[in-house]
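Can't paste images in this forum, so I'm doing it all in text. The chain is below; anyone willing to post the predicted structure tokens underneath?
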Amino acid sequence: MAKETIVVVCPGRGTYNAPELGYLARHHAGSPWLAHFDGVRAAAGKPTLSELDGAKTFDPKLHPRGDVAAPLIHACAFLDFLALDRERFEVVAVTGNSMGWYTALACAGAVSGEHGFAIADAMGINSQKHAPGGQAVIVMAGEDWRVDPETARAVEAACAQVGVLPSIRLGGMLVVAGPEAALDALNAALPPLPRPPLRLPGHGPFHTPLMQASADAARASLPVSWFGAPAVPLIDGRGAIWRRFESDPAELWDYTFGHQILAPYDFTAAMTVALREFAPDRVLLLGPGETLGGAIGQAIVAHRWLDIDSKSVFSRRQEEDPFLVAMGREAQRRLVTV
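Text version of the structure:
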């Protein structure tokens, strides 16, 4: 029987929340990789992932912090990737959103599992090194998940007017970043929207030039020798594809700790390329959580992929035979694991 083809999506910050507490224990207890990750952190004098994941309650001041969230999310996603039933599914491409790029590197084989974790762990710390500023999410899509082009243009103009920069293009949402004063001024400049912008607590001005200190720290501590060509195609935050026999490891390192940190991350473009270039049988969203599912669904709707042209059509398809499989959702997880 022919294998189903899948594009794998690695989630970024904001996906390990209170409902995800205990995710590693529930799904990956006894994993040798988890034991390795715990050992690395213990040797560095840091709380282990098992300790953080096994806390009695979710700590809103601790768990979302970059140096905690990044390694937790990376471990959940990478171990989910390893749990995929390879007898039934063929991975034809891997991509990720924002911090998920570091996990995508490991899943695609561009870096080893050990180095992938070291990168995610280090970048959780480096991401806290930046000029003053933060992030906010602007929802542009209506209830049908479609975006009015005029609204999108008005949002872009309002951001430029107050000095707020695009950070992540996320389906029917736009994550923006900039100095706190600029973010404060944004609300008054925006056109009418489905809901007011949501500030992201604990987030820096990611994917903007304000992250130069983070990029400098990464380049100084994370060597180019860790990078190789990916084993499967890797789609970056521009929509560019890194292929096995066409990729220069030094260029991949340079993108990862340069453009990827300092310029907007276009997850919408990455999903567009994933659909059009690879036409997978399914899209697989690794855990933890499933909050990125909405953005993926909105990208699918925008391109009317498989004649899915609205949220309601997407929802019906998901109930009948899910095109998007989220491993953070238990019923869907069982569809793709051994």
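The chain has a mean pLDDT of 95. The radius of gyration is 19 Å.
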